[in-house]
Amino acid sequence: MIELQHVAYSYGGGELFSDLSLSLAPGSFHFLTGPSGSGKTTLLKLCYAELKATSGDVQIFGEDVRSMERDRVALARRRIGVVHQDCQFLDHLPLSENVALPLTVAGRGGELGQDLTDLLAWVGLTRQAGQLPPELSGGERQRAALARAVIMSPEVIIADEPTGNIDWEMSQRLLALLVELNRMGKAVLIATHDLQLIRAAKAQVQARVLRLKDRRLQAAGADL
Ligand SMILES: Nc1ncnc2c1ncn2[C@@H]1O[C@H](COP(=O)(O)OP(=O)(O)OP(=O)(O)O)[C@@H](O)[C@H]1O
Questions:
Q1: What is the ipTM of this complex?
Q2: What start and end residues bound the annotated signal peptide (predicted)?
């Protein structure tokens, strides 16, 4: 689904990483760890074609990102649900409309209804559907961001520090949702510093743990 081969990336200075290869197959579950500043967010952005590799090949759903026109990139992006690190919302719109925004933007707002209700129930936010984003807790925002990322039924879920600012119980809840999505056959890629979360996930799902360090991507040690 998403293939990176011998990829390097630089923001203009030295290379952040090089000769990096990664393959996200249907139904796979990957964690990406590594020190702050090692390039985890950058690597995720390469996976959803927000950035283009400085060198090497990136293929998304069989297409070479370098030669994809903008509309092809936009179409491919609809098949990838992204939970961003800062999970921003439109603060003047209620939670339910924020979650539904990708469908509305795609001109499919008419399909809303029971699916949205079900999705909000799935992430445990039925009661908060009418609230504005500034009125939500950190954990509620993270779950809303996940709901928004999956409303288009993506085949791949990419989450950047999804449990960054939430307590352990809420992290567990979020992890359970991601594991459930994976069991439905979706590929999941999560960047995180949270080693406890990785250990908890490994008890539930066959996850590969990758570590970005010293400009290289390696399989993490067996202790994880
Ligand atoms: N738009 C940008 N322009 C220039 N440099 C950038 C840009 N975005 C990120 N960087 C730099 O690239 C490096 C990697 O950033 P990135 O956010 O990918 O790391 P990270 O591993 O996700 O970090 P963290 O764990 O702290 O979120 C950092 O040194 C960062 O300052």
A1: 0.97
A2: none
